[in-house]
Amino acid sequence: MSTVKLYPPKPEKVYFFGTCLIDVFYPGAGLDAVSLLERENIEVLFPDGQTCCGQPAFTSGYRAQAIDVARHQLRLFDEPWPIIVPSGSCGGMMRRHYPELFDGQPEEQVANSVAERIFELTEFLVHVCHVRLKDHGPDERVAMHTSCSARREMGLADTGPALLRQLSNVTLVEQARASECCGFGGTFSVKHGKVSQAMVEDKCAAIEAAQAEHLVTSDCGCLMNIDGHFKYRKAKVQGEHIASYLWRRSS
Amino acid sequence: MSVKTFTPAAFHHQSAQALSNPQLRHNFRGAMDGLMAKRLGSFDSWDIEALRDLGQGIRQKALRYLPDLLEQLEANCQRNGITVHWAESADDAGRVITELCKARGAQSVIKGKSMVSEEVELNARLAEAGIEALESDLGEYIVQMAEETPSHIIMPAIHKNTADISTLMHQRTGTRETNDAEELTHAARAQLRDRFQTADVGISGVNFAVAETGTLCLVENEGNGRLTTTVPPVHIAITGIEKVVAEFKDVPPLYALLTRSAIGQNVTTYFNMISGPRRGQEVDGPEEVHLVLVDNGRSRMYQDEEYAETLQCIRCGACMNHCPVYTRVGGHTYGTTYPGPIGKILMPHLLGLNTTKNLPTASSLCGACGEVCPVRIPIPKLLVRLRNEAVGEGKGNIEGAGSARRPMEAMGWKLFSWLARHPRCWRVGVRVVQACRSAVPKRVAPWTDNRVRPTPAATSLKQQLAQRRRS
Predict the structure, then answer these.
(1) Model confidence at B105, in pLDDT bands (50, 70, 90)?
(2) Which stretches of chain A are assigned E, i.e. beta strand?
(3) Mean pLDDT throughout B23-30?
(4) Considering B64, B179, B358, B387, which has the largest number of Cβ atoms within 10 A of its Cβ?
(5) Which ipTM was obtained for this model?
């Protein structure tokens, strides 16, 4: 698949794939993402049967199990609407890996169709909705962590920061090694706990060194990791999903 | 514990040790930050993506015709007077080289930098035959003096700082202690100089072996490569069978990618093109030149369309320099000749997954390695494939497949998969998790070693959306 994505005009409706982490741990972020989309006069469809994109099994080596999970998700998006995913890693799984998992399979065509219609939330807000955000919040210094999947699998290093820059009272700070992984990596954080811990400590130190008061990210895995460490240290920096941050300040 | 006894099986233990060594972490962090910045700067005026496409194309073309190109290389080398030897295993390589040395009655060998010689543990094999091998690349010289192995494929002694090196050289060679890196370099140079003159054999690696012309290209900065390959009466070049390229015109793009990706250098101080022994009236150059082509598991990788991509590697080390895991634990932690991301896919093929199964999982799959690889090896994709093989779910014929399979884990993923295909049951599962939210233990190691535990929300997104739509 080409890395250049041609963006469609703003649609009437979109599908929303909430992701399992948001569903269970950060439902507020999902709700705020839906609010952001609805404010753009888009009807948000939430397919009832959605569960998980299958990425955890895929990256753990359980490919057949991941394919089974993915096959189930493929059935949720019958109409040709874009599919919005508020996570770079689930979005990356569905856009990049679904076509490869179903290559030569009966579901190949539908997998490709789903993949082409996958948009990460900030990508969709910037490139399809062309949102203009009005900032009602106080002056604040904010650090953005773009997940590795959003950055490298989906090529979306700039969409999150672009939205934050629209907030007139927000100063987006420059962190050292901003493109470096926070150390989450799903089962990596458990299988290689100590390495993962060292990585999140460094990430948090870089955010603090940039004198950020707030940390936003477009991925709940990274959020759980980075904010989890800040909270463990009782640090001042507050972590939040970018959807909640944008909605809170602009609504 | 000496790094020589490190093993890939003990990766967890070794990584914990490395992480608790602030000096080591400082040395690697500083060096890798510098290398990343230099790399970026050196590609400044280039269309890096186009150059990477070209590099990938050249390497893929070479691999597609690998058997033919190797025969062509052999024929053209022989025509140039270079004797070609084939080594199927590390043992074979060691035996061939030892015999070549013995045939000349060699007592001492001077070596240029060669990772393949590390891979086949050549120095130890020569020592068994009573032949002394001295490393002449500065980094390798230091590592050999410290009785260690390289911690990086381009910069073998990158784990040491100037003070470490000064102390080491003082202890082993009586060099005056100093913090002046240049003074230490001059001292090492003086110590090595005579050894080039007295060595019976010079052994080097090869960066590109050109099939079309039978030329061996050697990239280096210190001049030790040139001395190693020209001063002693015998030159033995050792390399992996994948290092062949089809034509001479394939070399410049790969060279441009190699030096920039490796250390952010536009051009190296030396670029040697070795095309045979001393001829007729020539006054210098070796009397004999040999090329030892090592397989050691490579042709098995070649059989698999995906794993074969690993053989595109030009050994620049950029994947290591950009790896957040390598940067923190250093090269010795991997316990293998080739560390870092490329090592994590290469070594399971060379050693089998039984001992290396902890390597493919030692990645957050952040993709930094794949992003910088000059020949676009899809390292993250191959790591996922190896995980698939390691847990016994794959189809490859890699040795030790299934050795990381844990029945409970496999059951867990099957249950996860079943639930994710049965949304009603999944919802019940979500509600159970919610009901038990206060029962989640405060400490869930290793997660809570330095993070708070994640707490499920009282109601799920699905429930909250349904509620909102009703109101």
Answers:
(1) very high
(2) 13-16, 43-45, 83-85, 118-120, 140-145, 170-172, 214-217, 238-241
(3) 95
(4) B387
(5) 0.96
SS3 content of chain B, % helix, strand, coil (to 5): 55, 10, 35
Bridge partner list, B218: B272
**Domain B48-139+199-299, CATH among 2.40.50.90, 3.40.50.1220, 3.30.70.60, 3.40.50.10420:** 3.40.50.10420
Q: How far is CA B205 from CA B292, B342, B465, in A?
A: 10, 19, 64
Q: What is the pLDDT confidence band of residue B441, given thresholds at 50, 70 and 90?
A: confident
What is the number of H-type helices and E-type strands within chain B?
22, 10
Averaged pLDDT score across all residues of chain B: 96
Closest residue on chain B to A235 (Cα)? B451
Peptide linkage before B446 cis (omega within 30 of 0): yes
User: B417–A56: do the CB atoms touch at under 8 Å?
Assistant: no
- Chain B residues close to A189, C-beta within 8 Å: 364, 446-447
* Helix (H/G/I), strand (E/B), else coil: B76: helix
Cα gap B45→B257, rounded to integer Å: 13
Amino acid making up residue B280: G
Dist. CA B347–CA B334, nearest whole Å: 10
User: CA angle, B264 as apex, B155 and B229 as ends, to 5°?
Assistant: 55
Longest dimension (CA), chain A: 53
CA A219 – CA A184 distance, rounded (Å): 10
Q: Which residue of chain A comes nearest to B453, CA vs CA?
A: A228
Which residue is listed with tokens 């900030």?
A: A122
Compute the nearest-CA separation of A166 from chain B (Å).
27
Q: Give the contacts of B343 (CB within 8 A, at least 6 positions apart).
A: B334, B336, B337, B359
pLDDT given for residue B1 in this prediction: 54
Per the CB < 8 Å rule, is A65 touching B462? no
C-beta atoms of B457 and A56 within 8 A: no
Could you give phi then psi for residue B230, rounded to 5 degrees? -120, -30
- Where are the domains positioned within chain B? 48-139+199-299, 409-470
CA atoms within 13 A on the CB side of B341: 34
Q: Is A183 strand, coil or helix?
A: coil
Q: What pLDDT does residue A114 have?
A: 98
Q: Determine whether the interchain pair B324/A181 forms a contact, defined as Cβ–Cβ distance below 8 Å.
A: yes
Residue A2, pLDDT > 50, answer: no
Contact (Cβ atoms closer than 8 angstroms) between residue B218 and residue B112: yes
Q: Which of B343, B111, B312, B15 is nearest to B121 (CA)?
A: B111
CA distances from B224 to B137, B139, B268, B427 (A): 6, 12, 13, 67
